[in-house]
Amino acid sequence: MILRTLLLAGIAATVPLAAMAAGGTRSLDSVGPSVVIGLSDTALCVMETQRDNISEAYYWCDRAIRRAESSIDERSVAYMHRGVVHLKTHDIQAAIKDLDKSIELTPHYGDAHFNKANALFALGRYQDAVDCYGQALANNPTTPDLAHYNRGKAYERLGKGDLAKTDMQQAMALMPEDSPLVARLGKRP
């Protein structure tokens, strides 16, 4: 349901917690500030962003960014999710700034490119959004179906119907059967 809400808002903010938990967890016995049941600040940032708990997400993302022991990858994930928090609160310029920082830290982070493209789309910068969705797709985002779908919507806004149709068909081919967007796109081929 949370993912569904995010998808309908045009924002995909999914990052596997297991990928971050492996190297970034601390137990309650560890030296320094303790974290909730051994989750890293970054994992809490992701979790609260997915729950749409804006103030908690911002707190944990900001903390992960500021902490010296956070790895570059953890900081990149935190910047990306804080960017999503900014998108959810309609602070698009702050979102782009954080998403740019995420991309600077890890240039091949497909989800950061995807969410930056969403921010550019929100600003009406459709050609920039198309380019950024292309970068997302080149870097394996978590939701390639949505990257194709959203790029198709940007192409529509640019009056490029053939390119929009191609992306929508690709989105449909990649989309899970239970996706809320399947009904919008029609039956599968």
Automatic annotation (TrEMBL):
Coiled coil: none annotated. Keywords: Repeat, Signal, TPR repeat. It comes from Aerophototrophica crusticola. It holds the Pfam family TPR_11. TPR repeats lie at residues 76-109, 110-143, 145-178. Residues 1-21 form the signal peptide. It comes from the Bacteria. This is Tetratricopeptide repeat protein. SMART domains: TPR. InterPro entries: TPR-like_helical_dom_sf, TPR_rpt, Ycf3.
